[in-house]
C-alpha cells in the first residue's frame, strides 16, 4: 500500500468521525449557550462573578451531553470497555479544554481588556473559548480517550485470550482423550 493510499484511507476514516464530532459539539454548544445565558441573566443575575459561575455550570452540563454523544455515536467504534475510566479521561480532557480555555478567555476579556458586558462575555466564552477548546478536545479524544490504538490493543488482547482459552481447551481435551480407554466400536 502506498503512502498516498494510506493517507487517503486515513482521511476517509477521519472525515465521518470529524463530522459526527462536530454535530455532537453543536448540540453541546447549544446546551452550553442556553445554560450560560439562563445562569447569567436569570439565576445568577445579582451575584458577583456571575460570568465565572455561569461558565462553569454550563460547561459541566455540556460536557456530560458531549460524552454521551461522543461515546455512543462519534467514537462508538473505539469505546473502551471501562466506561468509568473513559469517563474520567473524557471529563479530564473536557474540563481542561472546555472549562479552562473559555474561563481563560473570559478572564482576559473581563480583566485584561475591560470588556465586561454580556455580548463580550458570550464572544469570549462561547466563540473564542469554545473554538480553541474544540481543537484541543478533538485531538485528545481521538488520540487518547477514544484512541484507535487502544481499541486495537483491546481487540488483540481479547483475541489472544480467546486463542489461549481454545488452546487450553484443546490441550485438556486432547490429554483426556489420550488417557481414556478405547472401548472399540459399539456392538463389537
Distance between the termini: 61 Å
Structural class: mainly alpha
Q: How would you describe the shape?
A: elongated
Binned strand content: under 5%
User: What is the count of structural domains?
Assistant: 2
Number of strands: 0
Average pLDDT over all residues:
80
* Number of helical regions: 5
Q: Flag low-confidence runs.
A: none
Helicity level: over 70%
**Largest sheet, described in full?**
none
Query: What is the succession of H and E elements?
Result: HHHHH
Specify Rg, calculated over alpha carbons: 26 Å
Q: How would you summarize this macromolecular structure in one to three sentences?
A:
With 188 residues, this protein is mainly α. 83% of the residues lie in helices and 0% in strands. The protein folds into 2 domains: 3-146, no CATH class; 149-177.
Task: Supply database-style keywords.
single chain, 188 residues, mainly alpha, 2 domains, 5 helices
Describe the 3D structure:
The chain folds into two domains: 144 residues, no CATH class; 29 residues. The model has no long low-confidence stretch (mean pLDDT 80). The chain is mostly helical. It starts with a helix and ends in a 9-residue tail after the last helix. The chain has five helices and no strands. Helix 1 runs antiparallel to helix 2 and helix 2 runs antiparallel to helix 3. It is elongated, with a radius of gyration of 26 Å. Helix content is 83%, strand content 0%.
Show the helix and strand layout.
Blueprint: H1 3-43, H2 50-74, H3 83-112, H4 118-145, H5 148-179
Amino acid at each position: 500500500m502506498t503512502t498516498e493510499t494510506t493517507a487517503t484511507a486515513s482521511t476517509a476514516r477521519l472525515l465521518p468521525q470529524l463530522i459526527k464530532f462536530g454535530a455532537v459539539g453543536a448540540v453541546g454548544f447549544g446546551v452550553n449557550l442556553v445554560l450560560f445565558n439562563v445562569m447569567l441573566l436569570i439565576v445568577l443575575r445579582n451575584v458577583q462573578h456571575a460570568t465565572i459561575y455561569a461558565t462553569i455550570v454550563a460547561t459541566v452540563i455540556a460536557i456530560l451531553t458531549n460524552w454521551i454523544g461522543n461515546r455512543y455515536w462519534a467514537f462508538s467504534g473505539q469505546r473502551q470497555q471501562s466506561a468509568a475510566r473513559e469517563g474520567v479521561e473524557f471529563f479530564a480532557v473536557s474540563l481542561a479544554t472546555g472549562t479552562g480555555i473559555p474561563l481563560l478567555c473570559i478572564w482576559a476579556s473581563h480583566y485584561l481588556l475591560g470588556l465586561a458586558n454580556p455580548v463580550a462575555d458570550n464572544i469570549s466564552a462561547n466563540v473564542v473559548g469554545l473554538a480553541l477548546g474544540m481543537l484541543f478536545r478533538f485531538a485528545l479524544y481521538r488520540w487518547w480517550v477514544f484512541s484507535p490504538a487502544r481499541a486495537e490493543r483491546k481487540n488483540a488482547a481479547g483475541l489472544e485470550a480467546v486463542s489461549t482459552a481454545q488452546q487450553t481447551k484443546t490441550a485438556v481435551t486432547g490429554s483426556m482423550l489420550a488417557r481414556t480407554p478405547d472401548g472399540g466400536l459399539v456392538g463389537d
